[in-house]
Amino acid sequence: MIKLPEYQAKDFGKVAVLMGGQSAEREISLESGKAVLTALSDFGVDVTGIDYDKDTFKQLMNDDFDRVFIALHGRGGEDGTIQGALDSIGMPYTGSGVLGSSLAMDKILSKAVWRDSGIPTPAAVELNEETHWDDVVDQIGLPIMVKPVNEGSSIGASKVTEADKLSSAWVQANQFDDRVMAETWIEGGEYTVPILNDVVLPMIKLETAREFYDYQAKYIDDNTQYICPCGLDEHTERSLGELSNKASQILGVTGWSRVDLMLDESGNAWLIEVNTVPGMTSHSLVPMAAKQAGISFQELVIQILATSMVNTSVTKELEN
Ligand SMILES: Nc1ncnc2c1ncn2[C@@H]1O[C@H](COP(=O)(O)OP(=O)(O)O)[C@@H](O)[C@H]1O
Ligand SMILES: [Mg+2]
Q1: What is the pTM of this model?
Q2: Pocket of ligand 1, candidates 145, 186, 221: which has the most ligand atoms within 8 Å of its Cβ, to mutate?
Q3: Rg for the chain (alpha carbons), in Å?
Q4: Hey, which CATH number is domain 124-184, 3.30.930.10, 1.10.10.10, 3.40.50.360, 3.30.1490.20?
């Protein structure tokens, strides 16, 4: 059983849940935000939901909020920009700070840091108008996963099995991000590893009848399988958990995260990405893993909110 610190509603003061925003993941964020809002309100926290826009900072300051729960996914919310703005007004918030958020959002830079630290991640190259598609195949082989560098929810991503399809895959990904990457395709099983304050929660195995875990498999299909406990032996799960935790920490990610990885057919692990504000709807993956560990949705939300306390003490030290 995981032992968690206990909190009372009054420990948190006046809380704002930031949700929505303008990223491609707006709708999912609204769902996450509403679920978080309900859980905090049921716990007795003085909480307000805010659909994030340019007036939000004025509201945060004028209405004397004490802390913010960031339930924004994707660019603008998960990429360090809001984190920087909140730092500049001394407002504590949940999860990672500026550096961890921005490094984890940038899939090319995440991989560069991992490579430098000996953390296994598939070979990748950035693509642009001048790329020679045959060179990409020479460098990283086929099949290839083409995806936006800074996007989530599998938006704009596709699998390419022939060099002459790379160009159209690039065009598709480029609609969502100026920066696009090609990564060696890993054939095998997909897993995701939720982490709460450096404690690794039970891993989840994802199975889809589709080519990969794309937008449709994530949010629309009802036959996507989420297997938790994930079926790996205890030793393997523990070592993959440690690897994921290290991969997350090395990016400067703190508080909570969800690490995506693939296990190839020989059982080798390949780190894919770290999500610093994972989905928090009632059917999202972090809540699923927490439940497996005996942590209710409400308890999980409270523990995530408490990750803002670290910032609080830093702010207090600065004030003294
Ligand atoms: N190198 C890869 N090999 C095989 N499948 C991949 C690879 N990279 C990503 N995928 C698939 O695409 C999905 C989305 O990719 P990911 O990098 O996690 O981006 P997102 O931020 O959109 O979740 C993954 O969940 C996985 O199913
Ligand atoms: Mg992912």
Answers
A1: 0.94
A2: 145
A3: 20
A4: 3.30.1490.20
